[in-house]
Design brief:
Low-confidence stretches: none
Number of helices: 9
Helix content: 40-55%
Shape: globular
Number of strands: 5
Strand order of the largest sheet: 3-2-1-4-5
Distance between the termini: 55 Å
Structural class: alpha/beta
Order of helices and strands: EEHHEHHEHEHHHH
């Protein structure tokens, strides 16, 4: 019995990719994930996440990580289809891993609707969709760690050339970076999500 967990990282960020990751494991090995100390990535230090990332990949029967570019995100936001975009990528992950049951963390206010959408897009795979699935199911916690570490690594690469903070609108360093860059260049870097409200505000000011 193969169980899959799917989660995202970087949804609220002003820049960088939105990462969707999935992990598939035999149901009998779920206990091992718990004994490794796997929990929601937000409750772990970056160091622990990195250590667990390697251990999860070693334990997993299969895993798949997808990165969605700012350009794709902007195109979807224009059509009010960000949830639809996530559902499409989560369905892709589920189709690749082909488990018996998948647990997904719902970004939709209606988890049932979100689960149905993924099921339809992944050729009727069995999907169980919940809010806060990353803190309720260890398999989704594992997926959240893969997504978060992948996302952090992508931001680290950007940081080599730019002083851009965490990438989130709540980070004044990030807002300052985008504002300054736009003022100097009259354009935005390709890794910035132009459709985000805080970015729109900078463009309009």
């Amino acid at each position: 019995m193969q169980i899959c967990g799917v989660d995202d990282a970087g949804r609220g960020s002003m820049l960088g990719p939105l990462v969707i990751s999935g992990i598939s494991i035999d149901k009998r090995k779920l206990r091992k994930l718990s004994s490794l100390g796997v929990k929601d990535s937000k409750k772990l230090s970056p160091k622990n996440r990195n250590l667990l990332y390697k251990k999860i990949i070693e334990l997993a029967d299969s895993y798949y990580i997808a990165k969605i570019s700012p350009r794709s995100i902007d195109a979807s936001v224009k059509k009010h289809g960000l949830n639809q975009l996530e559902a499409k990528y989560m369905a892709r992950v589920v189709s690749k891993l082909n488990p018996d049951t998948s647990y997904v963390d719902s970004c939709d206010v209606n988890p049932k609707r979100f689960g149905k959408e993924i099921s339809k897009l992944s050729d009727n795979h069995k999907i169980k969709s919940f809010h806060h699935a990353d803190s309720r199911f260890v398999i989704v916690s594992a997926a959240s760690i893969l997504a978060k570490v992948t996302r952090d690594r992508a931001i680290e690469i950007l940081r080599k050339n730019h002083d851009l903070g965490s990438g989130y609108p709540s980070d004044s360093k990030t807002v300052k970076f985008v504002t300054k860059y736009y003022k100097s260049n009259h354009t935005l870097p390709t890794f910035v999500r132009k459709s985000w409200k805080p970015v729109q505000k900078i463009l309009n000011d």
